Each structure stands twice: as structure tokens, then as C-alpha cells.
Amino acid sequence: MSDPRNRGTPILDDILLPDEDSHPLIVMPLLLNFNRLPFRRVGEFAEAMQQYLQGLEFMHAHNVAHRDVCYFNLMVNASKLVPKGLHVLNP
């Protein structure tokens, strides 16, 4: 059963490169920086902040220390906020 407070980014795949067995490439969904989101209402922003705090609480409950919680490290999967989709070259 998944915990709704778990806001961690899923790992989709890991790729081992030749001669680099100890440092795989991690494949994750495309995320946007928090400051690039098209919030239209204060309520959307408040909901996002609540989800970030829930995620932080979840990590702490599982003895995970983030060590660098700041505005610049807030990322979001905006696929539901941006219905036309995202492109890495034109977010």
C-alpha cells in the first residue's frame, strides 16, 4: 500500500554504462523547477506547498535527512498542470 505523503520522484530505469558499474544513470520523469510553474490561483500554490511539506514529513518519518531543503530544490511533475505537455527545449 502506498503512502499518500510519499512525494518522492519514481525511478523509471537505471542504465549501466560500460566501465562505470558503480555510477548508473538514473532515468526519472521530466520535472520542472517550482518557480517555472503556471500557478493561476493562490490555492494551487498553497496545495503545492502542502504537498512539499507532506513529502518532507514522510522522509523524516522514515529517517531520511534531505539536508538541502530550499526553494531551488523544489521540483514538480507538471503534466497535470500543463495539459499540452512539456518539452525539454521549450518548457
From TrEMBL:
This is Protein kinase domain-containing protein. InterPro entries: Kinase-like_dom_sf. The lineage of its organism: Eukaryota, Fungi, Dikarya, Basidiomycota, Agaricomycotina.
